[in-house]
Amino acid sequence: MPTERIGPPLRAGERETLRAFLDFHRATLALKCEGLTDEQMRRPASPPSTLSLLGLLRHMAEVERTWFRRVIAAEDVPLIWSETGDFQAAYDAREADGAQAWEAWRREVAHARRIEREAESLDVTGHQARWGEDVSLRLVMLHMIHEYARHNGHADLIREAVDGTVGA
Length: 168
Known about the structure:
Blueprint lengths: L13 H20 L4 H5 L10 H20 L25 H21 L6 E4 L4 E4 H27 L5
Antiparallel strand pairs: 1-2
Helix pairs in contact: 1-5, 3-4, 3-5
């Protein structure tokens, strides 16, 4: 099923605009990963770096889970790919299963969307244990946009190295 990427609205309120930009970036990552085999998704773009599209997809599943479920919703859930809380474990996709990564990412995005929509406002806060600080949903939304934008830049280069596809 092809990913539909809808551009953010040109005139909307703060929450709708943040939601739309985040979904735009989520769709961009999905487009960068679509149509590839597991082997292609595991391929690093620039050795000696092991960064791959599959590693990015796994990492973003962890990021979605952490910021929305663990921080904003205060759910006591472990990381997906690390029992020790090591975010770097998600990047190691050498033996990873693409279907499992897609399923985890889609599941965490669905949880994140639900949590954001159920929140009373962007001023809702959660505790970010790594920082020892409370943070607002507004900050989380902006941080997620930043995180996706940064990694989508990586995904551009990786996808081009894998099969020459550019754009999206």
